[in-house]
């Protein structure tokens, strides 16, 4: 359900020059209430309904949670990579796959 100060936005995925972004031209919210939305669009594409408290700026709490979460995740992934590399006695196909997955997520 939407809370006070939030609004839903009907969008579609637009790809340009091998990159994409959400675009709202040609799509509009035709109805609904706080529990659902009805969107209409003038074309076929990949559609979504975005819900945001503000489209112009991010909230400070969201930025803090993002940076703290990313930092903790990177530290834990680094420790996992070091553990997988140093514990050769536990080496198996499963450990090798977990090591590769950890490296990919860290990158």
TrEMBL record:
Gene Ontology CC annotation, any one: plasma membrane
One Pfam short name: 7tm_2
Single biological process term from Gene Ontology: adenylate cyclase-activating G protein-coupled receptor signaling pathway
GO MF entries: G protein-coupled receptor activity
Residue spans crossing the bilayer: 60-87
InterPro entries, A to Z: GAIN_B (IPR057244), GAIN_dom_sf (IPR046338), GPCR_2_secretin-like (IPR000832), GPS (IPR000203)
Location within or outside the cell: Membrane
Organism domain of life: Eukaryota
Keywords: Disulfide bond, Membrane, Transmembrane, Transmembrane helix
Domain GAIN-B positions: 1-57
Membrane topology term: Multi-pass membrane protein
Protein name stated in the entry: AGRE4 protein
Organism phylogeny: Eukaryota, Metazoa, Chordata, Craniata, Vertebrata
Gene this protein is translated from: Adgre4
């Amino acid at each position: 359900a939407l809370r006070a100060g939030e609004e839903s936005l009907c969008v579609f995925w637009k790809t340009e020059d091998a990159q994409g972004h959400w675009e709202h031209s040609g799509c509009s919210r035709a109805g609904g209430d706080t529990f659902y939305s009805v969107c209409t669009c003038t074309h076929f594409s990949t559609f979504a309904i975005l819900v945001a408290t503000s489209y112009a700026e991010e909230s400070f709490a969201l930025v803090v949670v993002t940076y703290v979460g990313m930092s903790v995740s990177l530290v834990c992934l680094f420790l996992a990579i070091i553990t997988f590399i140093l514990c050769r006695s536990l080496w198996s196909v499963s450990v090798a796959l977990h090591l590769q997955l950890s490296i990919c997520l860290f990158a």
